[in-house]
Design brief:
Length: 205
């Protein structure tokens, strides 16, 4: 065993011992194996800093490198958590926006229908009062009612298309944010693999 590995081993052992209360807390709270639990991330960041500082003081490049890798892994995990939170907020906002638009569209449909009903009633009253009027006048009123009905349908279809387009746009934003979070988590896993590989090589040596 090289002399330089002695203090490195001591540092590792000390850190493992100091982590025991955290492991107990992990088991007690059901967070065992959860690398994204806030206390675990905080301790891992502390551990990485200790390795970097002591490695620098001991001129142990391997210990410094371990600290750097662990620090990068913690940073990546924290970024993944942040992106996941942003994705969740974006999706919630999209859902609320779509629901609001649906409610507004429903109110618009109801108002349009009420106006159409009132117009139809007025038209019926006019037809009743104007039985003796010429057939040309009757056709003119009916054409006007048809145009109004077509406009109501066009307005309703336009409102529904706008609501659907907004929903799709918001869902795409939420999906993009989720994909970024997934990619970041993948990088965290890759960094962790590198760290494990480094530890394995150290044990093998």
């Amino acid at each position: 065993m090289q002399l330089q590995t002695i203090p490195r081993t001591y540092v590792r052992t000390s850190l493992q011992i100091s982590r025991i209360p955290l492991r107990i807390a992990e088991r007690a709270t059901g967070n065992e194996g959860n690398e994204q639990w806030a206390p675990v991330l905080a301790y891992d960041a502390f551990q990485a800093n200790v390795k970097q500082v002591l490695g620098s003081l001991l001129s142990d490049a391997e210990l410094v490198r371990q600290g750097e890798l662990e620090k990068a892994r913690v940073a990546t995990l924290r970024e993944a958590l942040t992106l996941e939170a942003v994705a969740a907020q974006t999706k919630d906002g999209a859902d609320r926006t779509f629901q609001d638009r649906q409610a507004a569209a429903a109110r618009d449909r109801s108002a349009v229908q009420e106006r159409a009903d009132r117009r139809e009633q007025d038209a019926e009253t006019e037809r009743s009062e104007a039985k003796q009027k010429a057939a040309a006048d009757a056709r003119s009123r009916e054409e006007r009612a048809n145009r109004q009905e077509q406009k109501r349908k066009n307005d309703l279809a336009k409102a529904e298309r706008a609501a659907k387009a907004s929903e799709i746009a918001n869902e795409r934003k939420a999906l993009a944010a989720s994909k970024r979070a997934t990619a970041t988590k993948a990088r965290a896993i890759e960094t962790d693999k590198k760290l494990r590989a480094t530890k394995a090589r150290r044990k093998a040596s």
